Amino acid sequence: MTTATPSPTPRTRLSPAQRRTQLLELGFRLLATHSLDELSIDLLAEEAGISRGLMYHYFGGKQGFYEAVVQHAADDLYARTAPPDHGEPMERLLASLAGYVDYVVANHAGYRSLVKAATGGNDNLRAIYDTTFAALADRFFTADPGGLVIPDTPAVRLLIHAWQAMVEDLVLTWCDSPAGLSREDLLQVITTSLPALIDTLPG
Amino acid sequence: MTTATPSPTPRTRLSPAQRRTQLLELGFRLLATHSLDELSIDLLAEEAGISRGLMYHYFGGKQGFYEAVVQHAADDLYARTAPPDHGEPMERLLASLAGYVDYVVANHAGYRSLVKAATGGNDNLRAIYDTTFAALADRFFTADPGGLVIPDTPAVRLLIHAWQAMVEDLVLTWCDSPAGLSREDLLQVITTSLPALIDTLPG
Questions:
Q1: pLDDT at B98 exceeding the cut of 50
Q2: Interface membership of B151 toward A (CB under 8 Å)
Q3: Which of A121, A157, A173 sits opposite B162 (nearest CB)?
Q4: Which of A59, B135, B136, B159 is a good FRET partner for A70, with 20 to 30 A between their CA atoms?
């Protein structure tokens, strides 16, 4: 009987893009316990075990790092709320919103930090936030044969913007205090409230 | 024919409370063209033609002045949205919301500055904002024989909180870009959306 010494796991060398993504994910995780203002280059460099110089190499500086973290989180949110390709319109909306709820539940504190930073006066972060929610709204209107059939009018777009604000408030508040609503109850409310809201439009 | 020299208008001496109120109203008006951060004691003293020392006497300091301005605006909002004593529940809700819409229209930029400050991380301002909207929500449940009859449950309160976020977003966005909706259209949407939203609750 021969015993083979287990060969050491080969050390994977990350590409610069993979390394950058890893740092952005770490940055977003740190937002769960720190406000964006507290999330310094120094803190991230320490947590990641890399030099400040390398951090500056990847992100240019503090503001560039913030924007990269927020953009990465926004892209992740957009990907996780992709509706399935097939199914009834309301089922597909429900699946997309389930992605949103699960994302917020999993990243509650970090998501709240981002909203606070985006709405509190940082114009570049606000632009990323606004662009993301506009892209989410666009999903209702893009050539999408199985999508929710709602007319693309300025008034409907105004209502979808407000409905997004309502859904964000509802899901964040529900995370703190579910008020007797299960995840399924919450999903029913946010899904059926969209056509109900559009039905309130005159004419 | 005798000509009487018109007597000068008697100079009214304001009480300290009236003077303080006047300063708060000036502060709120200045928020239409300045962010809360830009609204300094110096700027207000200059605009009001009084000394910085008197400003400190009235408000203690910058943070005290901010909080007093926001509290004054919140009290004003609460007063202007008081529903009439009589009428059908939905008519009374409509009248209360008309007060809200007209308040936001008249103070659009200032209101937006306050929301930004309250949601962006100033905890004392956030507390005033939250307390005000909780008081507005309480109106639906206080002993109010002609009020909208909705059950007082934690889930309904969760939904009213989210509905308020939706109404605020809708009215602020409508001020910038009305999307073909008249004031009456907007009022119809925000009024009828409350019972429509509560109807989405399961059970």
A1: yes
A2: no
A3: A173
A4: B159
Q: Do A197 and B202 touch (CB under 8 A)?
A: no
B185 close contact with A: CB closer than 8 A: yes
> pLDDT, tens digit, for every residue of A125-156?
999 999 999 999 998 887 566 667 788 899 99
Cα distance between residue A12 and residue A22, in whole Å: 13
Cβ–Cβ under 8 Å, residues A24 and A68: yes
Burial class (CB in 10 A: 0-12, 13-18, 19+), A20: middle
ipTM: 0.88
* Residue numbers of the domain that contains A119: 67-199
Say which amino acid occupies B153: T
3-state secondary structure A132-159: HHHHHHHCCCCCCCCCCCCCCCHHHHHH
Q: What is the DSSP letter of B12?
A: P
**Rounded percentage of chain B residues whose pLDDT exceeds 70:** 91
Kindly state whether residue B34 falls inside one of the protein's structural domains: no
Grade residue B203 by pLDDT with cuts at 50, 70 and 90: confident
Using the Cβ of A162 and the Cβ atoms of chain B, whether some distance falls under 8 Å is answered with yes
In a domain, B186, yes or no: yes
Our count of domains for chain A comes to 1
Domain of A155, CATH number, reads 1.10.357.10
Sign of CA dihedral B166, B169, B171, B174: negative
Paired tokens of B36: 């809360």
Alpha-carbon distances, residue A110 vs A23, A27, A30, A73 (angstroms):
15, 10, 7, 9
Burial tier of A4 (Cβ tally within 10 Å: 0-12, 13-18, 19+): exposed
Question: Mean pLDDT, chain A, as a whole number?
Answer: 88
The residue among A34, A125, A159 with the most chain B CBs within 10 A of its CB, best to mutate, is A159
